[in-house]
Amino acid sequence: MTGTTGSETALTRLSLSLAPALAVLPAVSLALLGAAILFRQQLPMQVLATAALAVLIAYSALRILLSRHRTLTDQALSAIVSVLAQDQSPGFLTSADGEVLHENPAARAQFGRIGPGGLSAAFGDLLANPGGTLRRMRGRVANNGAASEDIVTPRGPARLSVHRMDSGDLLWRFDEIATPEGAPAAGEVALLTVGRSDSILFMNGAARRLVGGRPKSLGAIFDALPLRPGEVHQMRTEQGEVAVRVAEVGQLGGRRELMLLPEPLQLASGSRRDETTMLDTLPVPLLLIDRDGGIEAANPPAQELLGPDCQAGVPLASLLEGLGRSISDWLAEAAAGREPVHSEFLRLSSPEREVYVQVTLKNTVLDGRPRLLAVLSDATELKTLEAQFVQSQKMQAIGQLAGGVAHDFNNLLTAISGHCDLLLLRHDPGDPDYSELIQINQNANRAASLVGQLLAFSRKQTLRPELLDLRDTLSDLTHLLNRLVGEKTTLSVTHDPLLRPIRADKRQLEQVIMNLVVNARDAMPEGGEIRVETETLRLSEPMRRDRAEVPAGEYVSVKVVDTGDGIPPDKLTKVFEPFFTTKRVGEGTGLGLSTAYGIVKQTGGFIFVDSDIGKGSCFTLLFPVHDISRAEAAEGSARRVRPERLRHHYAEGVVLLVEDEAPVRAFASQALRMRGYTVLEAESAEDALQTLADGDLQVDLFVTDVVMPGMDGPSWVRKALETRPDTGVVFVSGYAEESFAEGQPRIPNSVFLPKPFSLTQLTDTVQRQLH
Q1: Could you say which of 230, 530, 581, 762 is the most buried, measured as most Cβ atoms within 10 Å of its Cβ?
Q2: pTM of structure
Q3: Once rounded to an integer, what is the mean pLDDT over residues 169-198?
Q4: What are the Cα distances from residue 403, in Å, to 51, 406, 677?
């Protein structure tokens, strides 16, 4: 019906885009010819004349293209008009922005000539919100090329459909659906459109006849407000009070479209065909259920929600699950007259898709027999948000516990490793005690790494991001990975030759890769193959997966693929939860994947898992590509070089050290004094402020713990900087930097040094802040 082929459409679009050039090309050609005449030298004259001829040829070609475009457009429009003229249903041809270009005779007979308001004005008497409906359909047709929507009008049910032409114009068709004989007309269903302040914006004919007028607000016809979808409310009508069940059909821009269903639901006659027909005319998912829990009738919205197995004669318990007791007992109790006060949230039994359904039951009498009427609504998005909230609450609680434990451990480890560093300064490698001191130092570092893992899955560890090329990172890690997987397992690493850089903490990223490879090895006790693959991905639009949305952009993907036993579907959604493991007792802690999840999320990336039983699993990591500037590269290079230059520099200055843990304070003060600094010690913020009360005292730097009894570090530092604004600050803490930095203004000229820190890290940080 479009009248043009794809190649013709491309041709006409090209000619349209070049059409503005027609206005200037003749003038350009004349100007070139005039310039050629003015030149007396032969070569410039020939060049200008040739250019003028080329412009004239381009002008002629454009005229031919535009002429062909007009011809094709006229032919296409004539074909469309001739087809619409024979159609018995109203049809409209509009531009992409809604301007009516043509309407067929059937449309003119029903709607008259379309005025400036376009289709919105034409459908004003048929739809509660014609503008919203048309905008919604134009949005769908822009993505899919076509759209249709079943609507309820005062005259009965109808279907509005639209198709996009190759030219970009829209072809609309309005079909009224004949009501089957013996069924109540859809117009007999009362429809309301309600605004934010319960004002009634629209009432169809059935609603006006039921109420006996046109009230302005819900308060004029309902005593109990607000109206709750799925519940029964008493409504004032011309015949007195009537019990109606409220169903919410849609919601857009603060407007609610409500349907009022009389209670109990009565049909015009008692035949089974009448029951099914009545359900089919309603746009909300509805089921008729017998006393034994079997489905007697299901309307199309219910079948679309529950799937193709939702048919008459099928037990509801075979489609839904989720109650603590059996669904059959729940339905039998409702049928006996003890209706549930609240709706129930059930899960679709089908393993192919995760769908949650909110079910409201109501006793009714149809064909002289008691039945259950079930009103359904899709609650998948609500349950998804609930699951995310529960997970965040659980991770927050574990994170608080981990943070407290890590703080105490980091203080102990700082004291142990710090005093070990002091002893190593007084022992040569040939001393008998030197090797024991090295062992203490190495094990203290291992303990610090374990504390970091404890914080990783709660996403509260302090990361030190840097620019990474994953090809180099994995190359450095391959030797260790080969030792981890053993002789039975083959490890292969492949890279995208055009892999882009990312910004991440190298040590933490290596831990993620090792955790995934070790899990893959454990899934193949008899050996197998592990593949680590990297590639660059570009997402042109956001990707939704596993309750997460990956924004559009460029990413680096890392896949760890194994050929093991796979993960069962019921456990696939739990693998990233802390302490969840499928291994036997003593073979795993359940922290590996949760640690990986925490590190990846804190880095700004995403992690997904796919698995087939008997075929293996694939863990996919996505990290945003990072484009580094020259300034960042220079700054990073300076940071790498500067500590080595300052490491053995003997410095001077006065340092105020504030630390409530005596062993840590003793180590830090001794380390700073060894480098030549004058150290003033304070065991609390109050002692530090009292020391600074002496105005003649010169202090060059504050080194303070963050979390202390009484006033914390940032609070006393802000107060001290009021009288000493040029003093530098070094904050130290066993907590992550984000635990106190978020939500507070940054203190100028301050840096953060996480515990545990070594002697060299402390002195180098102090030296950088002073110089």
Answers
A1: 530
A2: 0.39
A3: 66
A4: 76, 5, 32
Q: Which residue has the tokens 């630390």?
A: 659
β partners of residue 657: 681, 703
Main-chain phi, psi angles of 750, to 5 degrees: -130, 150
Report which DSSP code applies to 553.
E
Q: What is the mean pLDDT of the chain?
A: 75
Task: Say if CB 213 and CB 219 are below 8 A apart.
Answer: no
Cα pseudo-dihedral 192, 196, 201, 207, rounded to 10: 20
How far apart CA 567 and CA 559 sit, in angstroms, is 16
Q: Which residue did the predictor score with more confidence, 521 or 281? A: 521
In three-state form (DSSP H/G/I as H, E/B as E, the rest C), the secondary structure along 631-674 is HHHHHHHHHHHHHHHHCCCCCCCEEEEECCCHHHHHHHHHHHHH
Q: Find how far residue 746's CA is from the centre of its chain.
A: 29
Q: What does the block give as tokens for 700?
A: 């060059």
As a whole number, mean pLDDT of residues 72-83 equals 57
Record the tokens describing residue 570, joined without a space: 């019921």
Burial class (CB in 10 A: 0-12, 13-18, 19+), 23: exposed
Distance CA 705, CA 699 (A): 17
Query: What are 347-393's pLDDT values in tens digits?
Result: 888 766 778 888 888 777 665 567 788 888 888 777 777 776 776 67
Distances from the Cα of 736 to the Cα of 163, 341, 413, 741, 762, angstroms: 56, 47, 15, 9, 17
Of 145, 189, 153, 203, the closest CA to residue 174 belongs to 153
Q: Do residues 192 and 202 touch, judged by C-beta distance below 8 A?
A: yes
Nearest to 288 by CA among 349, 233, 362: 362
Q: Which of 571, 474, 460, 562 is nearest to 519 (CA)?
A: 562
Beta bridge partners of 252: 255
- Contacts for 231 with CB less than 8 Å, ≥ 6 apart: 245, 246, 360
Q: DSSP H helical segments within 19-104, as ranges?
A: 25-38, 42-86
Q: How far is CA 140 from the centre of its chain?
A: 21
Do 19 and 70 form a contact (C-beta atoms < 8 A)? Answer: no
Residue 327 DSSP symbol? H
Short-list 348, 345, 295, 354, CA closest to 323: 345
